[in-house]
């Protein structure tokens, strides 16, 4: 079984790769951004708050994310899973580690997709015209990128130090197929 975490700034292509690899290996794809975007459509008081936070580019609270992830993983962990967009804070990483320890689940691969701000800005602006996401505007991209640098990069560094044997750096500047090829190379190796 394969349990995988994808890290990377917004626009690095982690959602795209997570989708491809989850189809390839028949894993559950747990994209917290997607789950939250679906929740927004429910139009209850929580969804109004979520929409406000997400369209500003800020992070949603750890409590909400931890609840979503633990309940989804409890349902889906049997098949193996890909975490795409979680954990994004050290508190989420701590929660996840405890949850996995208690459930006797281990992570097999961590892929950290790296990309420069210039490339990601271009990609996200292109995506904004295709997918019409509220948070794909230039001002919001800057906030999302600084959330990544100030908070989420610390989480990937934490795993890089804690689990170097399963941590793989991926160059996200290449074409989609090329990046998939690189990821598959690491998946095959171990
Ligand atoms: P994404 O589709 O992964 O780029 O996520 C879109 C937005 O959802 C983010 O900018 C955050 O506002 C929110 N979000 C997704 N995952 C998380 C998380 N693990 N922690 C906090 N906020 C999150």
What report would you give on this structure?
The protein has 190 residues and is of the alpha/beta class. The protein has a single domain, classed as Rossmann fold, CATH 3.40.50. It is built from 8 helices and 5 strands. The chain has a 5-stranded parallel beta sheet, with helices on both faces. Helix 1 (14-25) crosses helix 8, helix 2 (32-40) crosses helix 3 (45-56) and helix 4 packs parallel to helix 5. The mean pLDDT is 93.
Helix-strand blueprint:
Elements: E1 4-7, H1 14-25, E2 28-31, H2 32-40, H3 45-56, H4 62-76, E3 81-84, H5 90-103, E4 109-114, H6 117-131, H7 138-162, E5 167-171, H8 176-189
Parallel strand pairs: 1-3, 1-4, 2-3, 4-5
Helix pairs in contact: 1-8, 2-3, 4-5
The structure holds adenosine monophosphate.
Adenosine monophosphate is lined by residues 10, 32-33, 36, 53-54, 57-60, 65, 85-86, 88, 92, 135, 144.
* CATH architectural label: 3-Layer(aba) Sandwich
User: What is the third-level CATH name, the topology?
Assistant: Rossmann fold
Q: Averaging pLDDT over every residue, what do you get?
A: 93
Main sheet record: 5 strands, parallel
């Amino acid at each position: 079984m394969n349990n995988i975490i994808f890290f990377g700034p917004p626009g690095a292509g982690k959602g795209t790769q997570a989708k491809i690899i989850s189809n390839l290996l028949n894993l559950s794809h747990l994209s917290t951004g997607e789950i939250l975007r679906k929740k927004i459509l429910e139009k209850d008081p929580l969804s109004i708050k979520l929409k406000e936070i997400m369209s500003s580019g800020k992070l949603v609270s750890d409590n909400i994310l931890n609840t979503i992830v633990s309940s989804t993983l409890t349902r889906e962990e049997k098949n193996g899973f890909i975490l795409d967009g979680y954990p994004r804070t050290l508190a989420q990483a701590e929660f996840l580690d405890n949850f996995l320890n208690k459930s006797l689940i281990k992570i097999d691969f961590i892929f950290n997709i790296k990309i420069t701000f210039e490339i990601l800005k271009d990609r996200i602006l292109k995506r904004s015209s295709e997918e019409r996401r509220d948070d794909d505007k230039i001002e919001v991209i800057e906030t999302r990128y600084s959330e990544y640098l100030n908070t989420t990069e610390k989480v990937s560094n934490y795993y890089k130090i804690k689990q170097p044997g399963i941590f793989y750096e991926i160059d996200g500047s290449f074409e989609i197929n090329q990046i998939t090829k690189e990821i598959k190379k690491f998946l095959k190796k171990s």
